[in-house]
Every structure is written in C-alpha cells, then in structure tokens.
Design a protein that fits this description.
alpha/beta; Rossmann fold; four-stranded parallel beta sheet; 9 helices
Length: 195
C-alpha cells in the first residue's frame, strides 16, 4: 500500500498536518510533503498525477482569508483548475482548504486548544491591525512548533475535526477511497467470455 501524499505549503503547515494526521501517517496511509508555495505544491501534484495515473494525491491550501470570494478564487481558479488539467479523473485528487488556516483545524481538538491558550499572545490590547496581524502570525507559528509534541502521546482528535469541517470530512473520505483495492478484471478464459 502506497501512502497517499498530501501536499502542503511551508514548514508550519507541514507540522500541523503531521500532528493532525499522525495516526494515519503511523499506519502508512498518508504522508505529508512540504513545498515552497501554493503553486509549487500544485505543480508537484500535477507531476505526480502524470507520472502515477493509478495513484491518488491530495493538496491542502490555506486561504488566509474568510472572504467567500477569496476562498472561491483559491478553490476554483487556483486549485481545481490546475489539478483538473493534469488528471485523467477528478477521483484521482482532492483539494482541501483550511479557512483561514490550519490553526482553525488544530483548535478543534480540545486538548490542543487548552495548550494553545497557555502560549497564545493576546491581541485585544493592540490598537493597529498590523500589530494584531503580527501577533496572530506569531501565535500561528508557536502552535506549529508545539502541536507535534502535544499529540505525540495521544493522537489528535480527528473525529472531532471531521465533525466541524466539511473539508476535513471530504479529505478523510478521499483517503479511505484511495486505499480501497479496485475490483479485479475478470479473466476471460473461453471464446464465449469475450462476447
């Protein structure tokens, strides 16, 4: 069984996904591949599909926005359009969006949320949007650095995340489908079997 590659952009998103999908990684069902940017993650997925049309691939992109127009643009214009042009079938790939980023996925696990509250820097006293954005980015990176050790002994609560995120439910269903064995072709043994 080949592990399903999940392509993601950057070291911090890689750490989030490694923690979230730790149990599936340990089972050899998935692996997380880190790329420099969204475009390189999508190019790698395209290349993978062209080289291995019998295998599956997933891409997780962070939207960094909750604006529906921006999300729609990322999903349809950037992601789907790119993957559709290189695949034989859309059953071969899955595109999942983390809205606005993987921090939202990580906080679905109660244990991670409690630990995050201990290290999170509060932005409520900050007056400018730039200051708040700077602290939000620092919080995002801080959780990425810690989530792996917090989920090392007890796996991430993937079931809870699936309950609150359609994107994760669809990604997990895709992971399951990617590991199902195709029905074997019938062996044609007589002339009558050919007609």
């Amino acid at each position: 069984m080949n592990p399903l590659p999940i392509h993601v952009t950057g070291i911090h998103p890689e750490r989030y996904l490694m923690a979230i999908f730790r149990s599936l990684i340990e089972q050899g069902r998935v692996r997380v591949d880190n790329y420099y940017g969204d475009d390189s993650a999508l190019v790698a997925a395209e290349t993978f599909m062209l080289r291995h049309p019998e295998l599956h691939v997933a891409v997780v992109l962070e939207t960094w926005s909750e604006d529906p127009e921006k999300i729609r643009e990322i999903y349809f214009e950037i992601g789907r359009r790119r993957l559709e042009r290189s695949s034989l079938s859309d059953a071969q790939w899955q595109l999942a969006l983390a809205v606005p980023n993987l921090l939202a996925w990580a906080l679905a696990d109660d244990r991670v949320r409690v630990e995050f509250e201990r290290i999170r820097q509060d932005t409520s006293a900050l007056s400018t949007p730039e200051e708040r954005a700077r602290i939000d980015r620092a919080n995002y990176r801080a959780l990425a650095e810690k989530i792996g050790e917090w989920t090392a002994d007890r796996p991430f609560d993937l079931e809870k995340l699936k309950a609150v995120s359609r994107q994760v439910r669809e990604l997990c269903a895709f992971i399951e489908r990617s590991h199902q064995q195709p029905e074997p072709e019938p062996v044609l043994s007589t002339t009558a079997d050919w007609f």
